[in-house]
């Protein structure tokens, strides 16, 4: 994969902040819109690009409204805050001020499902990808490495579409291609009919650890929506046995997977944050991953149950 610059192994959110200054240099039509969160990390971008980093205060509905107005004026807004404040709280504005107006923006979240576990339920948003995917015309990227964040940002800053980029505190050890496709990472010996485990974004290293000695192939994507249906069909084979491991609400990708495999007899397991119960605990992100079965041990249990 070609990345835009050689950089230290940063976490995803830090790489986003460090990339903003060169991004604003390279794309004169881009503005950054904030609701306080993140402003303390953008001093260089604010100093070098006066008027192009706009902080609306703790007003998340206005955050999206301002982005919609900028887009209508021909600007390319990059909008940033925690996922629960970027997607859930101003969802009507995302639907109307961007979608209904048919204008583009790049929404970049932090916090993911439970990264800010100490902040409580107000700062957790496992349903964000499902909500965005329910609106027409959106692309969702879930990168798993800081270099992927940089590549996605520069590509989408030069575009015109509606894009959601979900940043997580979890990350993989190396970058992978972020071209929207599914990529085979482990071939399971290459035998036909070997079950397939599809890891989304930062879940790849966990899936590789969980399935190290299991008879499965492992694939990966950073773009779960729209899903690479042709790639899934090619990898899944004529009678798929498939597990989809996603770091957000379990079953978010179910409709897209079902549509891709509609003409094939298949057994499909979706592994993610369970939606039927709510974990009323603080703890650490690692605690939450274990409680939801999204650590290596939990993923292994679920995949083993699929294998029977």
Strand content: 15-25%
Number of strands: 11
Secondary structural class: alpha/beta
Biggest sheet features:
6 strands, parallel
The residue fraction in helices comes out at 25-40%
Number of helical elements? 12
CATH class of the largest domain: Alpha Beta
Shape: globular
* Fold-level CATH name of the largest domain: Rossmann fold
Averaged pLDDT: 93
Q: In what order do the strands lie side by side in the largest sheet?
A: 2-1-3-4-6-5
Quickly count the domains: 2
The helix-strand sequence is HEHEHEHHEHEHEEEHEHEHEHH
The CATH homologous superfamily of the largest domain: Thiamin diphosphate (ThDP)-binding fold, Pyr/PP domains
- Terminus-to-terminus distance: 36 Å
Which segments are poorly predicted (pLDDT under 50) over 5 or more consecutive residues?
1-8
Protein name: Transketolase subunit B
Organism: Krasilnikoviella flava
GO molecular function: magnesium ion binding
InterPro entries: PDH/Transketolase (IPR051157), THDP-binding (IPR029061), Transketo_C/PFOR_II (IPR009014), Transketolase-like_Pyr-bd (IPR005475)
